């Protein structure tokens, strides 16, 4: 109770008598007490309502401001949507750099290159200004065939200056041999010494010289010969035959300019499927129920034109070899547009007098 609403205590009155007088006074003045308490109780809701209004106005203002900002941003995006930078793809970037057309031409060039490789048209380290040779003749030999080599050098094969003059006429002749299984041993050193004196070897550095490696030797020979000389023909000759060199040159001259020529004494034969027998073919099951070899040139003398030899060089890593070098070469020719030339003059075991080769 506020002091303004209480009765004053007179001197000499006790507290009890004063409280009685106040109760009597309140009973006679009820409006004054109730109005005071009512005024106090009505202030709380008014304050809470005022604060609620302020909070509502603040939230509404923020929402209105956010809405205005969103509307402004939306208008800006709509106005500038036509001017937004385009997301560039890789093709767009290449096109801007002028690379797309170059890339297309590169792909076309690679396709043409692959086609040329498959057809054996590519040239190695030979320039267009060099005169093409007529033939490269490779005579197979081994580490123990030194006597045979000397016999050939004294008979049909020129040596020394005569060999150089023959090359000037367009015919290169080389003994073909690989390397020993034990690189750098006496076998390799003997061949190197002999080659320094005679200069008539084609040494296949990547080939291991062994009887069972003859089919692979054919790949290495044709590849190495193509990379070393640009010739019309590449001739593989065994070391157990004698050549009529002039007769061979005459045949090759008559075929000069021929494309895709596969020449030799063509034959076929039975595939030996019994292991342990001579001429056993481990891949016999690939030749069908008839067990017969396809047509191929006999291994004693095989002639390939330039593009066929280059095909072997380019694709040598993926070419399948069989038990024998002649059937291996024949298998490589099957899928090509090759012209088979079966010439009796090239049959070394034939009884014909006009043949260009004979068994030694």
Automatic annotation (TrEMBL):
Subcellular location: Golgi apparatus membrane
Pathway: Protein modification; protein glycosylation
Molecular function GO terms recorded: hydroxyproline O-galactosyltransferase activity
InterPro entries in the record: Glyco_trans_31 (IPR002659)
Pfam family, one: Galactosyl_T
Entry annotated with the keyword Cell inner membrane: no
Low complexity biased stretches: 32-42
Membrane topology: Single-pass type II membrane protein
Gene3D superfamilies: 3.90.550.50
Region called Disordered, residue ranges: 18-44
Keywords: Glycosyltransferase, Golgi apparatus, Manganese, Membrane, Signal-anchor, Transferase, Transmembrane, Transmembrane helix
Gene Ontology cellular component terms for the protein in this record: Golgi membrane
Principal place of residence: Golgi
This enzyme's EC code(s): 2.4.1.-
Biological processes, Gene Ontology terms: arabinogalactan protein metabolic process
Enzyme's top EC category: transferase
Cofactor: Mn(2+)
Function text: Possesses hydroxyproline O-galactosyltransferase activity. Transfers galactose from UDP-galactose to hydroxyproline residues in the arabinogalactan proteins (AGPs). Is specific for AGPs containing non-contiguous peptidyl hydroxyproline residues. The addition of galactose onto the peptidyl hydroxyproline residues in AGP core proteins represents the first committed step in arabinogalactan polysaccharide addition. AGP glycans play essential roles in both vegetative and reproductive plant growth.
Family assignment from sequence similarity: Belongs to the glycosyltransferase 31 family.
Protein name per Swiss-Prot or TrEMBL: Hexosyltransferase
